Amino acid sequence: MRLLVRPDTVLRWHRDLVRRRHAARSRPRRPGRPRTVRFIRALVLRLVRENPGWGYRRVHGELLVLGVKVAPSTVWEILREAGIDPAPGRSATTWAGFLRSQAEALLACDFFETVALSGTRMFVLAVIEHHTRRIRVLGATTHPTTSWVTQAARNLVMDLQDAGCGARFLIRDRDGKFPALFDAVLADAGITVVRSGVRMPRMNATMERWVQSCRRELLDRTLIWDQHHLLRALREFEAFYNHHRPYQGIANARPLRPLPPPITDLDQIGHLDIRRQQRLGGILNEYDHAA
Q: 96, 122, 235, 285: which one has the fewest Cβ atoms less than 10 Å from its Cβ?
């Protein structure tokens, strides 16, 4: 009796059989990475529903503030599967390059304008720290006179000294509302004023970016009655920005509060109780764990 195959062929069949059997047993029941916990999906959709202007990056930052660690791409997929635009109305913004190693020594300031219901023009002066992104609203006025701007500079110097800030340079534009006394007060405190170049707004990109956020998240959604109302709204936004709002430029931390450690227990994630605290009648929303 002669066999129709050689021994090597039989051995090869046996190896293929063992390989296929092992592959079948090792194959995951569901292809791809594990599905996101149902509560996280529900929380992402809730944040977007209550904040229609938030994109996936903003939602991802809010999740990190709550201690829920997921990838930005996961938030993107959740929104895409729900038929929601992951980046509504966003356009790519390029920040001016600056030396990150010098961020602790840099401040930036700028005036920006808003108009009350009566048509009165009001000017707001704000300062931001490059290193921490902490914002300081120095005031708002209808007439930014030399004495008013100079006093704002003195108030800023005292505040920086009380906070132990070691800033040595302040970037500002060439706006005529800044008098020579403004620069002199800062120079006496050891802060050198650096004026941005002509037609070079990117030199003050960090400050301009905050002004954009203030307009989009507050002023464009608020009817300002008068100067008192404007200052109250700005103080609320300043507190919200410094203590709660995640900032992408500092890895989604808050300027005055670090991120909490991520929650790794899946059972704890599945039973989170997230509460919303509203500021300014719901214009600003803060989320935190229930006590």
A: 235
Q: What string of pLDDT tens digits covers the 291 residues of the chain?
A: 455 667 677 667 777 877 787 777 767 666 555 566 788 899 999 999 888 888 899 999 999 999 988 889 899 999 989 888 887 754 444 444 444 556 778 999 999 999 998 889 999 999 999 888 999 999 999 999 999 999 999 999 999 999 888 889 999 999 999 999 999 999 999 999 999 887 776 788 889 999 999 999 999 999 999 999 999 999 999 999 999 998 887 888 888 888 888 888 888 888 889 999 999 988 999 999 887
* Structure tokens that stand for 165 in this block: 């800030």
Give just the sign of the alpha carbon dihedral 181, 186, 192, 198: negative
| DSSP 8-state secondary structure symbol assigned to residue 32 | S
- CB 152, CB 237: distance < 8 Å: no
Percent helix, percent strand, percent coil in the chain, to nearest 5: 45, 15, 35
Distance CA 7, CA 186 (A): 91
What domains appear along the chain, each with residue ranges and CATH number? 38-89+260-289 (no CATH), 101-250 (3.30.420.10)
Residue with tokens 């994630």: 269
Region for 261 from its dihedrals, namely left if φ exceeds 0, alpha if ψ lies in -120 to 50, beta otherwise: beta
How far is residue 232's CA from residue 73's CA, in Å, rounded to a whole number? 37
CA geometry: angle at 97 spanning 154 and 136, to 5°? Answer: 25
DSSP characters for 162-224?
HHT----EEEE---TTS-HHHHHHHHHTT-EEEEPPTT-GGGGHHHHHHHHHHHHHTGGG---
Closest by CA to 107, choosing from 217, 183, 28, 5, is 183
